[in-house]
Amino acid sequence: MSATDPASQWLKADWPAPANVHTLITTRQGGRSLQPFNSFNLGSHVGDDADAVAANRELLRSYLPDEPAWLNQVHGTHVVNAAETGDTLQDADASYSSTPGKVCVVMTADCLPVLLCNDAGSVVAAAHAGWRGLCDGVLEASVAATGVEASSLMAWLGPAIGPDAFEVGAEVRAAFMAQDTAAEHAFTAIGEDKYLADIYLLARQRLAALGIDRIYGGDFCTVIDRERFFSYRRDKITGRMASLIWLQPQD
């Protein structure tokens, strides 16, 4: 891959997935969008020039076996089959696929993208885990949708707001602790009923409770790493990155 190839500035999940499981995680670099969306914005709903977004999506498509199953993300827990979305933009925050070539995708700019695959390389999934969806069970719903034993799955946690930047109110801490008292360990008090939340730890706790003990990634911070990542918390008006996963079709 040449230095001029936009994909040289993107990421791949660093995990021991089967060889037929492919991933791609875009950064803010390598696209056509102008400030403040510079430059590889994939969100069509954030106020960016539509032609620039279309050009970025077309470029992304050239690295994929099929058009991604784009979602209208609503911070919920609904999961769809990426092979069945067609041209309809569905309200959902996760997708799964056991069909080679069908691409699962979620967009983020601080929320946590979680990728899943099983040891057999027969199913993959992508989940958009903002704090609301994570608290309400989007990971549990995604694991259930795969239809395989949770112990056969591994997870990769992509670029999200880091534990030193995610300030939340007491109500967020209370919501997670109502689900699991162990969530207390993911919150650090900073005064005036405010806390720093570790969304990576919260996700690890939820995945571990399901029986998934192989969890990778989780060492990014979209807020701090402004050169690589979009951050809504930092910039308010900003683009969106994509985390994609698929089963490679046989030649």
Keywords:
6 helices, 24% strand, 6-stranded mixed beta sheet, globular, 3-stranded antiparallel beta sheet
Concise summary:
This protein is of the alpha+beta class.
Describe the structure.
This protein is α+β, with helices and mostly antiparallel strands. The protein has a single domain (6-160, 214-247), classed as CNF1/YfiH-like putative cysteine hydrolases (4-Layer Sandwich). It has 6 helices and 14 strands. The strands form 4 sheets. It has a 6-stranded mixed sheet. A 3-stranded antiparallel sheet has the order 1-14-6, with no helix packed on it. A 3-stranded antiparallel sheet has the order 10-12-11. A hairpin with a 2-residue loop joins strand 11 (187-191) and strand 12. The mean pLDDT is 96.
